[in-house]
UniProtKB/TrEMBL annotation:
InterPro entries: Peptidase_A8 (IPR001872)
GO BP terms: proteolysis
Primary site of residence: membrane
Organism: Demequina capsici
Protein name as catalogued: Lipoprotein signal peptidase
Gene that encodes it: lspA
Length: 172
């Protein structure tokens, strides 16, 4: 069975929520001003990130754009091999997060391919992120936990119905 609808629905919803919340942040928040939500643990603070997490790679924005394009292509390639609906949703979340931040890199200031990502969720001065970041990290954690539990993310290549082939008691 194909899990493609779940994959695409998760990806599209993630991009839509990410871009909508970024637009809200741009219209409602003043850059740099902090608005506490849960004391010092969680606040809203609009910043423009030219780098990756923790502002890593600030001077290499175009490299991060190329990496995001590669990641997007990889998830698109492997997304068709999801082993189950949960795996399709997980891969769709990862794709949606990558595309959400890639849109910023491609189309926001200062220039095409070097745009700064809109971040606005401040996690107690640990880092500032956005909905796309939540989707990416959530998908990664979910994939690790599933792997530790012995759950397969991808079906075997060429297996009928997109599932791993059955084996007999003798492994044949």
């Amino acid at each position: 069975m194909s899990w493609r609808p779940a994959f695409w629905l998760a990806a599209i919803l993630t991009v839509a929520v990410d871009q909508a919340t970024k637009q809200w942040a741009l219209s409602a928040l003043e850059p740099g001003a902090r608005h506490p939500l849960v004391g010092e643990l969680l606040s809203l603070q609009l910043v423009f990130n030219s780098g990756a997490a923790f502002s890593f790679g600030n001077s290499s924005t175009w490299i991060l754009t190329v990496v995001a394009l590669g990641l997007t292509a990889g998830i698109l390639w492997y997304g068709r091999r999801a082993s189950a609906p949960w795996a399709a949703v997980l891969l769709g979340l990862g794709l949606g997060g990558a595309v959400g931040n890639l849109i910023d890199r491609l189309f926001r200031e200062p220039s095409f391919g070097q745009g700064h990502v809109v971040d606005f969720i401040n996690y107690g001065d640990f880092f500032i992120g956005n909905v796309a970041d939540i989707a990416i990290v959530g998908a990664a954690v979910w994939a690790v936990v599933a792997g530790l539990m012995g759950r397969r993310l991808l079906a075997h290549e060429g297996a009928p119905g997109g599932h791993a082939p059955e084996q007999s008691a003798h492994g044949v």
